[in-house]
Amino acid sequence: xxxxxxxVVMGVAVLAFCYKEFVFERLIxxxxxxxxxxxxxxxxxxxALSPGEVELINIELASQxxxxxxxxxxxxLVVAFPYLVVELWLFAAPALYSNExxxxxxxxxxxxxxxxxxxxLAYWLIFPLTFNxxxxxxxxxxxxxxxxxGSYIGTFIGLLFMMGLVFEMPIVAYFFARIGVxxxxxxxxxxxxxxxxxxxxxxxxxxxTDVFTMCLVALPLWALYEFSVFVVRRSEPxxxxx
Length: 242
Fold this sequence. Notes:
This protein is an all-alpha fold. The chain has eleven helices and no strands. α8 (169-178) packs parallel to α11 (211-235).
């Protein structure tokens, strides 16, 4: 199983490495383009949001090659993730009881769906907003922004994977609810604190004075918290229900 997983990841990584123009121009560097879909949608909503002409720079001799290899590997992990999940399921399923396989399968599918949903939200909304603000922010007109390729790729990959992990919150909540550690009434009591934390997180991700933009980020995070409350309420053992 490990050999098959490694072979698939390496095979996809080689393909991603060979299709350099598509990977970088059409996917990774697309938010640098003023014609990116998110910017066009914002313009239709009456919001001027565009990074303008952004030119990334490279200041190290081997940096572009190493970044190319790193991006190919991470992209291979994302593309091969469904296959890896299936392999892990086929490996672990025989060790489960018959009454455990269905809940476990549902949890695996939900984990897969939530992870990609978080990455999609980060790619189409959060990263463009973050890049638009940070890429154009200046403390003085005399200080020009020269963004390195490494900084851009690091922020891009980190933000996408971070949001993918954040969207696993309902799965984690389900697990703790099933073992009796987390209860829905506890989440409801801390709802006001959660609202503040969500707004702080949204303001940190999109540190601008545009309330509408901040709400675009805060609403999905708040919906994720409320969905976690729903999951916990449905997953609590019967003897722990309030």
